[in-house]
Amino acid sequence: MSARDLDQAGITDPSMRASYERCRQLNAAHGKTYYLATLLLPPAKRPYVHALYGFARYADEIVDDLSSTLSDQQKADWLDSWASQFFADLASGHSEDPVCRAVIDTVQRWDIPVEHFEAFLHSMAMDLTVTEYATYDDLYEYVYGSAAVIGLQMVPILEPIAPQAYERAKDLGVAFQLANFVRDVGEDLERGRVYLPLEDLAQFGVTRADLERRVVTPAVRAALQFQIARVRALEEAARSGIDLLHPSSRPCIEAARVLYCGIVDAVEDIDYQVFDKRATVSQARRLSVALPAWRKARIARRRNGPGHPHGTSPPP
């Protein structure tokens, strides 16, 4: 992270700057598309988004580290201990944890509700005990915490101009997560999980056992197409919310929308072969989206300013 970003964000304490840098490193290493979109934000806002990513990534690593020799119960105990310390630190306003220090600072500056972090950690804990979901409503409990609240955490930093921005942010977060589920069917099976609702699969005569055979039959293809249609419907519902953000935030979220939801286009491009291929948005496609968005972001900042860099904007 450039010193300029931290300076413009008003982050001066050396230990706090180091914590934000640690979060940025996690984002750059593990969330390349997310990181690329973050660079479209005004510099003063980037550290806060990196902090939120760092929190989510750290918790996810506890749950999904396949190289770990820990049992699911041991992971659950570790997650619970880490979460308890985080909430205690949040209440005190300070943390010695190299990631959580920046997260707590971000929460305080932007007045982000604690319940969003509670919901997220609840979903992370579900991953250690729940291996399938009977209905979409059942899945939504998980997706709300793992994805919708990520959007809700972000909105204060993006500075909404109308309260409806929060509902649309939930839609976009869920769309991103469902797109990942479509892409990662094979990888999730390796972890013993199926995130496609069994009720939805049954509409097409597909069972979990069928997925575990790892063959893209016409029925499996139809089931994936059904999920892709859901992603696109949520994406369309979310689009109006982008205009409800501060102008300097819009290019970032628009680019993220195109790139993340574009995962399902990539699934179609590989003819739904999600069991032995990983659908990816090409580097050329990323650049074709990012470069025009970068120009729009510069124009928006010149015309409208960068927004409030320290969480000082009034609620919508």
Structural overview:
The chain is globular and about 55 Å long. It folds into two domains: 1-129, Orthogonal Bundle (Farnesyl Diphosphate Synthase); 132-305, Orthogonal Bundle (Farnesyl Diphosphate Synthase). It is mostly helical. The longest helix is centred in the last third of the chain and has 25 residues, at 218-242. The relative contact order is 0.12. It starts with a helix and ends in a 12-residue tail after the last helix. The chain has helices at 3-8, 14-30, 32-38, 46-64, 72-92, 100-110, 114-126, 136-158, 164-183, 185-190, 198-202, 208-212, 218-242, 250-269, 283-304. Helix content is 70%, strand content 0%. Helix 2 packs across helix 3. The protein contains 15 helices and no strands. The mean pLDDT is 92.
The CATH H-level superfamily of the largest domain is Farnesyl Diphosphate Synthase
Give the count of structural domains. 2
Count of runs of 4 or more consecutive helical residues: 15
The coarse overall form would be globular
Structural category: mainly alpha
**Element order: H for helix, E for strand:** HHHHHHHHHHHHHHH
Largest pleated sheet: none
